[in-house]
Design a protein that fits this description.
Helices cover about 45% and strands about 15% of the residues. It is an alpha/beta fold and about 210 residues long. It folds into two domains: about 70 residues, Arc Repressor Mutant, subunit A (Orthogonal Bundle), CATH 1.10.10; about 110 residues, NAD(P)-binding Rossmann-like Domain (Rossmann fold, 3-Layer(aba) Sandwich), CATH 3.40.50. The strands form two sheets. It has a seven-stranded mixed β-sheet, with helices on both faces. The protein starts with 6 loop residues before the first helix and ends with a helix.
């Protein structure tokens, strides 16, 4: 059985991957934990602890081979292989997500888009055609879809999630304003954009209070 890794460590992996990708593109061949710490503003000891969860990757006195570490984190994140996605809900957010080309460079390929609005059927988002939601189950099975992206109202999200799970979806990226409770064999990432904005507001207020007291 795989070692259980804390979600705090998992949440840092994409950031490591992003920075290592930039280093690799810049021609950097190796880097120490301290140098990576200076770039990422994460302590060197935290970096070493995080990587030790997966075997360490580094050599004493040498540091980390950037390309090797980049490739290994890619494998850990599962983005060394393609993932097939569909999106349900083609409003402003859904359209923006489906049209974001950087997803495909990470191996996330949008294969289909679905909506309840008949006036949208047949229209294109990039090279993806908008289809009726009644076709979702058949499309999932025929196209080996792994991930569904939900950008629909919260009252539609729970019944839609049930349909997707029954159709064999492995994971849901959920932008609806409701947390989804799914079976253990289905992964879900609930994304609440307003929560992130409120966190930003809190940090503005905290900074202003701290500087007013000086």
């Amino acid at each position: 059985m795989d070692k259980e890794i804390s979600q705090a460590v998992v949440s840092r992996l994409p950031r490591y991957f992003r920075y290592l990708g930039e280093l690799k593109a810049s021609g950097v061949e190796r880097i120490s934990s301290q140098e990576l710490s200076d770039i990422m503003k994460v302590t060197a000891s935290q970096i070493r602890q995080d990587f030790n969860n997966f075997g360490g990757f580094g050599q004493q006195g040498y540091g980390y081979n950037v390309e090797y570490l980049y490739d290994e984190i890619s494998k850990i994140l599962g983005i060394d292989k393609k993932h097939q996605l569909i999106i349900i809900g083609t409003g402003n957010l859904g359209t923006a997500l489906a049209g974001y080309t950087n997803f495909s460079t990470r191996g996330f390929v949008f294969k289909g888009a679905f909506d309840h609005d008949p006036s949208l059927y047949g229209k294109m988002i990039g090279d993806v055609e908008i289809r009726p939601v009644d076709e979702i189950e058949d499309f999932i099975k025929k196209n080996n879809i792994d991930i569904a992206v939900l950008t629909i109202p919260k009252d539609q999200a729970i019944p839609m999630a049930d349909r997707l799970i029954k159709a064999g979806i492995k994971a849901i990226w959920n932008f609806a304003h409701v947390d989804l409770d799914v079976p253990d064999n289905v992964q879900v990432e609930n994304v609440h954009l307003s929560d992130s904005l409120m966190k930003l507001s809190y940090n503005i207020n905290r900074y202003e209070r701290a500087h007013k007291s000086k």
